[in-house]
Design a protein that fits this description.
CATH architecture: Alpha-Beta Barrel
Number of helices: 12
Number of strands: 9
CATH class: Alpha Beta
Oligomer: single chain
Helix content: 40-55%
Structural class: alpha/beta
CATH superfamily: Luciferase-like domain
Strand content: 15-25%
Length: 327
Amino acid sequence: MTALSILELVRVTQDTDAGMAINNARDLAAHAEQWGYKRIWVAEHHNMAGIASAATSIVIAHIAGGTKTIRVGAGGIMLPNHAPYIIAEQFGTLERLYPGRIDLGLGRAPGTDQIAVRAMRRPPEASDRFPQDVQELQAFLAPAGPEQRIIAVPAAGTNVPLWILGSSNFGAALAAELGLPYAFASHFAPDMLLPALDIYRSRFKPSAQLDRPYAMAGINIIAADTDKEAKRLATTQQMSFADLFAGRRGLSKPPIDDIETYWSPTERAQAQRMLARSVFGSPDTVRAALQAFIAETGVDEVMIVSDVYDHQARLRSIELIAEAMKR
C-alpha cells in the first residue's frame, strides 16, 4: 500500500500562541503514529507570525520526544540559509537522540522574504551553491576519514537520510543525479508535478542511500463527516492563501460559511491555481480522490497537508484520511 505521511504546518491561530501550536503538532504526531502514518515533517519558515516552525530542528526534537515509532523530519530545511556543517551537527544530534527516525529534506528557497534573508546574514546568491552544499552536508553525515580535520560531532557516521524537495524540474534533476528520494510540493505548486516526476524517474542514478527512485508528492486533504463540513473547514486554508497574495500576513483564521465573501476575484484565481491539488470531503470522497491521485502520479508516498483551524477537527481529519486510505 502507498505510504501516507503528514506535513505539519505548526499553525499559530487566533486562539493559540506559538507554544500551543508546537504542542499541538506533537499531539498530532502521537495520534498519527497510532493511525499508521509513516512520517511527519515540519518546514522552515521565517518572519511569518502564523507559523511556529522557524527553529525547525528544535520543533522536530519536541515532536520526536512525544512519539515512539513515526519518522520525524524537516520538509524541509532551506539549506541556503545555513552552513551545511551546522545543519549536520543539528540533525546528527537528532539522530543520536532518536536513532532511525530522523529525515532531512532539503530545499533551496529561502522560506521567507528578502528582509529576513538579510537578517540571517546569508547572501542572496547562496542558493546557487545548493547542489554543492547538499553534497557537503552529506559528507559531514558520513563516517569521518582518518585524515579528516573538520568533523561534524556527533553527526559523523549517522548517515541521516537526505531528501531533495522541489516545486520545479531543478530539484527533480538534482535528486536523480545524486540518487536521493524526491518530494514534490504539489500541495502549493501543482503545475510541474508530472513533468518533474518523469525527469526524476528517467534520470535516476542509484546511490549508496537509494538503489531506485522513490517519489513523494504533497496534496491538501481535509476530511470531515460530510462534504459540506469539509469544504467549510477548508476556508481557513483558502483565506491564508488569499492573505498571502494580498500581503496580509497574520494568524490562521477560523472557517467561514462562504469564502466568496472573503477573497477578491484575483485572489480567488491565484489561490485556486496553487490549491489545484486539493480534496475536501467525506471519507468516501477522500478515498476516491486518493486512489485517483496515486494512480495518476504513481508516487511511492503521499504527504498530506490538512490545514484545519481547530485542533480537534484537524485530528479528526487526519484520522478519517487514514481510515479512507486503509479501505
